[in-house]
Amino acid sequence: MRLKNKTAIITGGGSGIGLACAQAFVQEGANVTLFGRRQNVLDQAVQDLGTQALAVPGDVSKPDDCKALVKATVSKWGSVDILVNNAGTFVGSPIHEMADEQWDQVLDINLRSVFILTKYALNEMLKNKSGNIINISSILGLVATPGVAAYNASKGALNQFTRSIAVEYGSQGIRSNTICPGLIATDLTRDLMNDKELMDQWRKNYPIGRFGIPEDVAGACLFLASDESSFITGATLPVDGGYTAL
């Protein structure tokens, strides 16, 4: 088992990419703490995952909730070995029409919250001189698309923050990498993906000929969480069916 005796925190862990990562981690022997705002979704996920899972409800944008999350994880499992910053939000608006509050909301959840939770997790990882941080970014952190400037900016900055962690803490046994998914079929994208005409058009931008599923991202996340990637840090890995290769 690739993650035996490891403990992982996964934000947005009750559904979609976060849940797929949790399932992959548990299958490989890890204990997981799932963090999110919907208690009922978290409880169902824990019921499905079994005794290797813990649900901690909270809001990633609230520092006290992030601090409590790390404390609960250490209390239950004894350490924080892996942190998957997966929770995020998406707001679309042309720049000249975007409300200040919209910009702040996206940057707060997609970037500031990652900094806050990473800071608390690092304090635990430094005690053991070992740790692994995986940030779920987006292809829109690598290329831009119109109408979502705040999202583009937040994910581009997240990629650079990941590199900062890697160079600052690599000598202390802590790795940090980013995954940049393309369009993934989740609850959050269901309405968008129901637009057949739009999807037929977008699919032309994916050389592999299809959109992604959560398990595609989970497989990459499992690799980066395992010792198989022990010489990889500061990397940005597109999981996008070739979208960014065009």
What does this structure look like?
The protein is of the alpha/beta class and 246 residues long. The protein has one domain (7-239): NAD(P)-binding Rossmann-like Domain (Rossmann fold, 3-Layer(aba) Sandwich), CATH 3.40.50. Helix content is 46%, strand content 15%. A seven-stranded parallel β-sheet has the order 3-2-1-4-5-6-7, sandwiched between helices. Helix 1 links the parallel strand 1 (7-11) and strand 2 (31-36). The longest helix is centred in the middle third of the chain and has 29 residues, at 100-128. 44% of the residues are buried.
Which percent bin holds the helix content? 40-55%
Mean pLDDT: 97
Strand order of the largest sheet: 3-2-1-4-5-6-7
Bulk shape: globular
Structural class based on helices, strands and sheet pairing = alpha/beta
Radius of gyration: 17 Å
Note the beta-strand portion: 15-25%
Task: State the helix count.
Answer: 8
Distance between the termini: 36 Å
Low-confidence sequence ranges: none
Oligomer: single chain
**Any idea of the CATH topology?**
Rossmann fold
Could you state the order of secondary-structure elements as H and E?
EHEHEHEHEHEHHHE
How many E strands? Answer: 7
For the record, the CATH architecture stands as 3-Layer(aba) Sandwich
Can you tell me the CATH superfamily? NAD(P)-binding Rossmann-like Domain
**Structural domain count:** 1
CATH class: Alpha Beta
Question: What summary fits the major beta sheet?
Answer: 7 strands, parallel
